[in-house]
Each structure stands twice: as C-alpha cells, then as structure tokens.
Amino acid sequence: MFKKVLVANRGEIAIRAMRACRELGVATVAVFSEADRNALFAKYADEAYYIGPAPSSQSYLNMDRIIQVALECGADGIHPGYGFLSENSTFAKKCEDAGIVFIGPSSHAIEQMGSKIAARNAMVKAGVPVVPGTNKAVASEEEAIEIASSIGYPVIIKASAGGGGIGMKIVHSKEGFKHALQSIQSVAASAFGDPTVFIEKYVEEPRHIEFQILADKYGNAVYVMERECSIQRRHQKLIEEAPSPVMTPELRKQMGETAVRAAKAIGYENAGTVEFLYSKGNFYFLEMNTRLQVEHTITEMITGIDLAKQQLRIACGEKLSIKQEDISIRGWAIECRINAEDPLNDFAPSPGKIRRYRSAGGPGIRVDSGVHMGYTISPYYDSMISKLSAWGQTREEAIDRMKRALYEYVVVGVTTNIPFHKAVLRNPVFREGRLTTHFIDDYKIIED
Ligand code: ADP
C-alpha cells in the first residue's frame, strides 16, 4: 500500500479520497490555492501545501508545481479526484516519469478516451455499439450537411475534446448548420484547446445509463452495476440513481459485459465509467470517463464496495479481489447534487458566504461535502455545496428518505437548488421512473 498520497484536487472529492487513505492507514497531503486557505479539505489532510493563486490555471492545473510538492514531501501516489487534472494524460505521464503513481489509468488509456472521435473508433473496433455518426473530424459546412443527410436529422455537433456538457449543439435541418459548426469549433478551441468537432445522430428521448467498472493491472475487470443519470440540466447531471428503473437482469448483463469489453479493448485499469445512451431497447456508447465520478456514492451504497479504496488498491498493484459473481445490488440509492445555483435564473451559479449550515442525517443518508458554516463558496470553482445521497430498501423508500433529508437540510446565505430537488422528487413522472434526459425541460419544474 502507499505510504503517502497527495490529493491533487479540492472540496468534497479531496476529502473523499483522503477518507479512503485514512481507512487504509495512508498519510494524506492536500494542496490548496489562495482561495482555499481555510477550506476543510486542507485542514483534513495530515499535511497541506500552498500551490498558487485562486485561478485554477495557476494552482489546481499547475502540473509541475503539484508534482514538485509531491516529490518534496515524499508522496508515492497522487489521487486526481474528478475534474482538474484527472483526465489529463500529460499529467498522468508526468507522474509516471517522476516515479509517482498516478491513481487512475495509464496516460495512454486516458489519451484514447480523451478524444471522443478516437474513443468511438476504438469502440467500433471492439464491437461496442456507438451512436450512428462520423468517425473523423468534420471541417466544413458542406461536409456536415452531407453527413447529416445520410444519417438523418436531428443530429448533434460535438467537440471531440469536450466535457462537462460544453461544446454540443443540436441541429434540426440543413439551415441549422449556418453558424453552428463554426460556433462549436470556436467554443471547443477556447474551452479545450482543440477545435475538432464531429457529428452524431441526436438520439431522441434517451436515458443516460452508465456502468461503473473496476479493472486491475492483470487483465481482470468487473462491472459494478449501473447508474441512471437522466436528470440533467444543460447536459450536466443533477440527480442520479442506482440501479436504473428500466434495467432488467438480461439488459444489465448485456450492457455490463459490453462496458467491460470497452475497458479491456483499451487496456484500461483502475475505476472508470462507460456511459451509454439508452433508447427503445437499444444502447449506444457515449464516452468513457477515466476517473472516479461525482456520482460514485450511489454505487457504493447499493453494492457495499468502496470505490475510492479500490482505486488505491488497484493503483498500488493489488489484484482485483472482487469477482463478478460476488457483486450484487441491495436496495436503491439516489444522489442529489446540492449546488449554490439559482434554478429560477437558468441555474446560474450563486457563490457567496454560507451564513447558517446544518446538513441532513439519519437513516440511509450520506453527505459528502467540503463546506461548513461561515465558508465562502468561491466564484473560481464549481458551485457544489455537497452531494446528498439516500439509500432505501426500495426506490420509494430512497425517494422518501431523500425528501425527508432535503427538508432537514439548512443552507442560509446563498441560493441553492434544494427547492428544485424537492420539486423533482414530488413529480409523479419522476416517481414512476419515467425518465429521459429531457425531463427538466419537458416538465418545466420550478421552485416551490
Ligand atoms: P460530456 O463529455 O460533455 O459530458 P457526453 O457525450 O457525455 O458529453 O454527453 C452529455 C449529455 O449530452 C448526455 O448525457 C446526453 O444527455 C446528451 N447527449 C450527448 N450526445 C447525445 C446524442 N447523440 N443524442 C442525444 N443526447 C446526447
């Protein structure tokens, strides 16, 4: 096992990774920016080091500085969390070169999945179904129109290097391409440093269903069941649940085995997530996230497997101790992302100081958070306050517990999406589990 792990991240996920370390007897190191001097995660760590000013480009994205701290303090592993450098193959390579274990897949695997076009091609080769579309970059409007007419409208233009729901546009007709292609190319260039775009069929009324996988260095891989993440705003997840209400044992086996095949095809190791769109009995590979996901908590709740500890064990070379037949589902879990954002103003972030704070608790409730009373949510980073997860023996019980926990949760000082979550959970269509990625738009759910 590692002796000392540096967590190259902040907030709740830094604490999550450090909790896993602590349980395994591994010393922890935090790195923090100017804005995070007094943050909880920096206090939680055994050691904490300042790495730079608030903008992430000068702190949490400063690879050389982070590696220098790791070397100076004698860390033998780096946990990247999610976001920031977690899916940066250059960073993984720099860790490898510095003799520090990057707690995640190899830089090569990250690189293959980091480009959506390269990932699609690798999946086609491995016999994994992908959304109909192009397997190469699309450069001109004429080319785009030709492709779209062959696959049929509507289509979606996507940035190959895209992430976080940024760099996507739906096109319904030939005229729709007028400025769309160029605009996505320039968004992609400025957000991801890569203007490459491609075109896919826009799958109508899909569900987003993803499979958690774990793979070791020795070719062993398992799927740790699925999560349904259809409740999204701006193509970003807001509420997730596990298992999926549409899943059957046969479909789970088929999708799960496909996810494992996808991972094996690129020699993947560590924890990862294979995302699919599901529509009318068919499923299509969307992308693979080569890191621990925000929503991993609900998988932990229904399977009892500690994914963060598994990441550490796999990274230090242990053989996967879990066999597919050992993994079973107990009950149901839901996660609500509690954000400082205004649902009545298009979910705009609402950073500021938390004046009163009391988190929820009681049976079946898990709160992963990096905030406290008096904490200031910084405009420099994401607006997450916490992840509220609820477990129940049935879906109904999980929903009822979540509703009760949302009622208990007190956050004063910033606008939060708690009232919005309450409205979704009360919605009869949600309660029936009839979910699609259009749920929020279709039902125009607004505050109490
Ligand atoms: P990102 O990497 O930005 O998260 P994804 O490719 O994972 O992008 O897509 C995010 C979300 O966008 C999906 O969950 C889905 O709601 C929507 N989406 C992406 N591609 C398609 C598609 N071809 N058809 C319909 N919806 C899509």
From TrEMBL:
<dbReference type="GO" id="GO:0004736">
    <property type="term" value="F:pyruvate carboxylase activity"/>
</dbReference>
<dbReference type="GO" id="GO:0006094">
    <property type="term" value="P:gluconeogenesis"/>
</dbReference>
<dbReference type="GO" id="GO:0005524">
    <property type="term" value="F:ATP binding"/>
</dbReference>
<feature type="domain" description="Biotin carboxylation">
    <location>
        <begin position="1"/>
        <end position="445"/>
    </location>
</feature>
<dbReference type="InterPro" id="IPR005481">
    <property type="entry name" value="BC-like_N"/>
</dbReference>
<dbReference type="Pfam" id="PF00289">
    <property type="entry name" value="Biotin_carb_N"/>
</dbReference>
<keyword id="KW-0460">Magnesium</keyword>
<keyword id="KW-0547">Nucleotide-binding</keyword>
<dbReference type="GO" id="GO:0046872">
    <property type="term" value="F:metal ion binding"/>
</dbReference>
<keyword id="KW-0312">Gluconeogenesis</keyword>
<comment type="subunit">
    <text>Heterooctamer of four A and four B subunits.</text>
</comment>
<dbReference type="InterPro" id="IPR011054">
    <property type="entry name" value="Rudment_hybrid_motif"/>
</dbReference>
<keyword id="KW-0067">ATP-binding</keyword>
<dbReference type="InterPro" id="IPR016185">
    <property type="entry name" value="PreATP-grasp_dom_sf"/>
</dbReference>
<feature type="domain" description="ATP-grasp">
    <location>
        <begin position="120"/>
        <end position="316"/>
    </location>
</feature>
<dbReference type="InterPro" id="IPR005482">
    <property type="entry name" value="Biotin_COase_C"/>
</dbReference>
<dbReference type="Pfam" id="PF02785">
    <property type="entry name" value="Biotin_carb_C"/>
</dbReference>
<comment type="pathway">
    <text>Carbohydrate biosynthesis; gluconeogenesis.</text>
</comment>
<keyword id="KW-0092">Biotin</keyword>
<dbReference type="InterPro" id="IPR004549">
    <property type="entry name" value="Acetyl_CoA_COase_biotin_COase"/>
</dbReference>
<keyword id="KW-0436">Ligase</keyword>
<dbReference type="InterPro" id="IPR005479">
    <property type="entry name" value="CPAse_ATP-bd"/>
</dbReference>
<comment type="function">
    <text>Pyruvate carboxylase catalyzes a 2-step reaction, involving the ATP-dependent carboxylation of the covalently attached biotin in the first step and the transfer of the carboxyl group to pyruvate in the second.</text>
</comment>
<dbReference type="InterPro" id="IPR011761">
    <property type="entry name" value="ATP-grasp"/>
</dbReference>
<keyword id="KW-0670">Pyruvate</keyword>
<dbReference type="InterPro" id="IPR050856">
    <property type="entry name" value="Biotin_carboxylase_complex"/>
</dbReference>
<dbReference type="InterPro" id="IPR011764">
    <property type="entry name" value="Biotin_carboxylation_dom"/>
</dbReference>
<dbReference type="Pfam" id="PF02786">
    <property type="entry name" value="CPSase_L_D2"/>
</dbReference>
<protein>
    <recommendedName>
        <fullName>Pyruvate carboxylase subunit A</fullName>
        <ecNumber>6.4.1.1</ecNumber>
    </recommendedName>
</protein>
